[in-house]
Fold this sequence. Notes:
The chain is of the alpha+beta class and 350 residues long. It folds into two domains: 2-110 and 343-349, NADH Oxidase, CATH 3.40.109.10; 125-332, NADH Oxidase (3-Layer(aba) Sandwich). The chain has 13 helices and eleven strands. The protein has helices at 2-12, 51-70, 125-134, 149-159, 161-168, 170-179, 184-190, 203-212, 215-223, 226-239, 254-273, 283-292, 304-317, and strands at 24-29, 32-37, 73-79, 88-96, 142-146, 180-181, 194-195, 243-249, 277-280, 324-332, 348-349. The strands form three sheets. Strands 3-4-2-1-11 form a five-stranded mixed beta sheet, covered by helices on one side. α2 (51-70) packs across α11. The chain is globular, with a radius of gyration of 20 Å. The two termini are 15 Å apart. The relative contact order is 0.19. The model has no long low-confidence stretch (mean pLDDT 93).
Amino acid sequence: xEKTLREIIDYAVWAPSGDNSQPWFxxxxxxxxxxYIDPDKDNPILNFKLSGTYISAGAVxxxxxxxxxxxxxxxxxxxxxxxxxxxxxxxxxxxxxxxQEDELFRxxxxxxxxxxxxxxxxxxxxxxxxLFDSATNISEARLVIVDxxxxxxxxxxxxxxxxxxxxxxxxxxxxxxxxxxxxREEEQKKGIGLYIVTLELPPPIRLLFKVxxxxxxxxxxxxxxxxxxxxxxxxRTYAKSAALCAIVIKNHTPQEFINAGRLTQRVWLTATALxxxxxxxxxxxxxxxxxxxxxxxxxxxxxxxxxxxxxxxxYPAFGLENETIAMHLRLGMTNxxxxxxxxxxxxxxx
Length: 350
């Protein structure tokens, strides 16, 4: 059984995580897998009250549930089994099952982020149906899809506020460039991080990033409008999407963010199975959450009205008012990504 559990964990670590931080580790206790998180691996500004880490942990649990079916097993998990240890996310038990292998299993290692501009091709009604079908049977989280061109354009522009604020805010600038890795060799050495090639930047901009990582350079370039130019470029890219998808929860609780992660993984795998490319575009939604909760110490005062304006655009566009957008994805058709981020070997603590 231990061999099977280790193989399931090998699939589990292909779940998505912010900036490829992979903030998790595992323990095997008899016929049980225990899932833990390592909050220090995640971006502390975007990761408000560990919400991003919980989403990643939920994606791991969703992957485990899918992978278990390949071995004729059903995964049953209990969240936060030890209230004294908040890093202990779930205890996962397995029972034999006669159910067929989940059709999403073979796409676990194919799923990836694709930041290229997408083709001007709308989602078919069948594609939308399958995406919505993938969102059933997960409580406390739901899927909302927007594919009207004008709404997509408005949301895209609001989302690009993230880049402007990040380039103009010292703390965000420092964290972004800290998480970037500049070569495969560096990525293999660090094990985690956002590989520069996956950003799909034109070669001149990639070279510019080499100097832009210095705050003094970024500050100087911002004076001549670089942050606004970067935001406009990203807005155009985000607008070239067949649809934008929001994973929505009612309350700001760890359990709901975990379920949002489970739902995110199923939607993303379903999109992959449908031949769609996916990019998470989440920064502005984490900014909005912090702004709504009054935790704005990391932002410059001039950015607070911009965050509020983004909120006033994206939430009505998705038909939301009092709910929380936990995850946001852009979907569309394009060529394969130039590169993919690496996965580290699973950390299994004996």
